[in-house]
Amino acid sequence: MKLTKERIVDAGMAVFAEVGYQNLSMRQVADRLDAHAGSLYYHVRGKEELLALMADRVCRRAYDAGTAALAALPSSAAWPDRVEAQATALRLSIKEHPGGAQLLAESPGKLSTGALSLMERLLGTLLDGGLPAEHCGIAADTLLSHVTGFVLQEQNQPSSPPAVTAELYADLRERFPLVMGELIPRIGQDEKFTRSVRLLCTGFAALKPPVTP
């Protein structure tokens, strides 16, 4: 099958999911494609460009998912609902790619028009919501970092929880009653994510100037 930039990115994503950011190499990608490593360089200049293309793909798909999520909202939706829709679409899009959160977390310096599109739309949403311009950049960075970090934890969770004996559990519960006890509710990841985004939006809303009578 003919080599194309899209096929190289496909193979890069597959290799990345197996070996991670630091260990990915063009030779491994070429092996995945049953091609010579040198032939890849006609399409992609090297590992740095490949990583940038991979990150851009994740962001572009997240942007498209966000567009669909925003279109599904009523026209009267408030700005926090629009922020939540974008954040949720980003989380789900990153989760579609094994290692996707690691890719975005470890390649923030790579220019990506997909990432710029996500930031541009989020900044516009915050500005439309009445947040002062001087706070919007920090708010958007905080939200995007939260989404990436949240998914990073999800994708790095072990397949099974560590084994804990009844004796050890009782000891831990006594030492850490808030963490291990029943006072703090245990909620699922989806609800935890939604509530965390809403909590951030509540904080962002406090930055809005008071309405003068």
TrEMBL record:
SUPFAM superfamilies: Homeodomain-like, Tetracyclin repressor-like, C-terminal domain. One of its GO terms (biological process) is negative regulation of DNA-templated transcription. PROSITE patterns: HTH_TETR_1, HTH_TETR_2. This is Tetracycline repressor protein class H. One of its GO terms (molecular function) is transcription cis-regulatory region binding. The keyword DNA-binding applies. It comes from the Bacteria.
